[in-house]
Amino acid sequence: MQPHVLIKPDGGKTIDFANPNGVKALNAALLSHYYQVKFWDVPAGYLCPPIPGRADYVHYLADLLAKDNQGVVPRGKTIRGLDIGTGANVIYPIIATRSYGWQMVGTDIDAVSIKSANAIVNSNSVLTNDIDVRQQDNQRHIFSGVVKPNEYFNVCMCNPPFHQSAEQAKAVSQRKIQNLTKNKTKRGSHVSAKKQSATLNFAGQSNELWCEGGELQFIQRMIVESLDYASQIRWFSCLVSNKDNLIQIYKSLRELGITDVKTIEMAQGQKVSRFVAWRF
Asked: What is the per-residue pLDDT for 21?
């Protein structure tokens, strides 16, 4: 971690957030300190998510489950969670099982992500018996093929691909790099083209960043398919990055007769995000 620490003009310490290795080292340090995960790594080019924002989603879901449990957050292995698109980082299952002792299943369509997630789980004794990683072989399905017959989950979570195309994803990544570059320049630092390129390459794989129809179409597919698993999953939930999509999401839920719907907002600094949860 130390090689990535920078001294700010006011004497405070920070890390170079434009450097993917620095961000990865920060994540590994946080996971080790707060969750006792001693080995954590992701392949180059795969998403390296900020831990605090991911933790928020898990903790708000725990609060949601508490409302059906006399206000007490349920803990232990009797509570089972499903993470759709767990990625190479398997962050959500790690936080859920280490914070509340839940049994977690993480799914993904990408073979490299599955291999990476399994390596993390198998390298940490605190995770090995509590996280199951499963590959989704059909890109058209979300639950089918990974949820076993007669299997029950208390809650499902998902951080869906946001963009509608690779071009859109790349443009947004470029803007993020430019913003980081401007901030560093103001502090008297220099960002090389090589480093910018490395950060772009670190921004995520295609299945992590975009899908046909973007976030809205993915969530609508998830809503439709959730009908077939109404008896196996108590609460379905999904992050919604674009608040303008909420109107169409609510409409899709109403059209299927789903009336028990909750929208929960989360905030990290200036960033506000939300997830929609529904049940039958």
From this structure: 86
The pair of structure tokens assigned to 198 is: 């490395």
Under a CB-based contact definition with an 8 Å cutoff, are residues 24 and 44 in contact? Answer: no
pLDDT tens column, 91-127: 999 999 999 999 999 999 999 999 999 999 999 999 9
Coil/strand/helix, residue 41: coil
Domain ranges in the chain are 2-165+204-279
Distance of CA 34 to the CA centre of its chain: 18
User: Please, how many CA atoms are within 13 Å of residue 15, restricted to the half-sphere of its CB?
Assistant: 16
- pTM exceeds 0.85: no
What distances in angstroms separate CA 55 from CA 30, 97, 177, 206, one per listed residue?
Answer: 11, 11, 25, 24
Please give the pLDDT value at position 1.
61
Under CATH, domain 2-165+204-279 is a member of which superfamily? Vaccinia Virus protein VP39 (3.40.50.150)
Measured between alpha carbons, how far is 2 from 15 in angstroms, rounded to an integer?
9
Q: What is the DSSP string of 138-182?
A: -TT-SSTTTSPTT--EEEEEE----BSSHHHHHHHHHHHHHHHHH
Comparing CA positions, the residue from 239, 203, 160 lying closest to residue 45 is: 203
In this predicted model, what pLDDT tens digit does every residue of 130-166 receive, in sequence order? 999 999 999 999 999 999 999 999 999 999 986 454 4
